[in-house]
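At your convenience, could you comment on the folded chain following this short note?
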Amino acid sequence: MNIWILDSESGIKLLYKSFLKTNIDEFLVSGLLSAFNQFTMTEFRQPIESLEMGGFRWIYLLEPDCNLLCVAADTKNASTKKIKSKLGVIKESFINDYKDVWLKRGKSWTGDVNVFLPFLEVIENYYYDWEDAEIVLQLADFFELLGIFQKLLNLISKTIEINIQGEKRENIYKRIETIFETFKNQEDIKDDVELRKFSFSRESGFIIMEINHTNCDPIIVRKTLIKFVVDITNIIKEEVGEDLSLKYYREGKIYNYIIENMKLLKSLNLNMFFLKLFLLI
């Protein structure tokens, strides 16, 4: 995220802080940002709030009472709501720290802008605190993700063991073993120490939780686990049929687990996926 704090009337840059590696000319962009805001105020009688330009998402926050314009630029993948929230914290903190300067200068930001330089450290502190918090949140989400899949695979394993007998169970086990063997023999998996920890055996069942979160890509892990569950449920459906699959999932408490953890599944964007998968929709 890159952050500008400007005088909304003159377009003078009071502060600029960059956390993204870009070729942006901070002085040129400062003028453009102010010009965009003045244009919308003149033509539409309201400040600009956001736009996408040059591969970035731009968020504007205007404080008309103090002639202050704060702008943040982040990647298009970044949440508009999160950018706006963070920028709002920075804006309020800046006003709180420098309102006396504004008043002493006759309600103007003109003058020596070096007086604002100490606020760069405040922005940095906010940014890295938010970054740490997001890492913690992502880490928590990652462990929740692993826990969800581990529990569901355990329930599937128990369902197979209790409800399916003879040749059909043997076929299911063989096909699941083949899935994991094929997975580990893929060229892009052979050297992946963490993903190779995913395993299945008839004695131990499915092993998911042993993966080291600091040494893997959560997106790839999520996609891999989803594929495992889809392939395994397809195998069960093919071996015993849809009606018995639904019956076994109900008796194996899989539906109960999904319903009881619906809020968590929704937060991980897995609720509809699991409902459709286990209802065989």
Observations:
- The mean pLDDT is 85.
- Residues 135-278 form one domain.
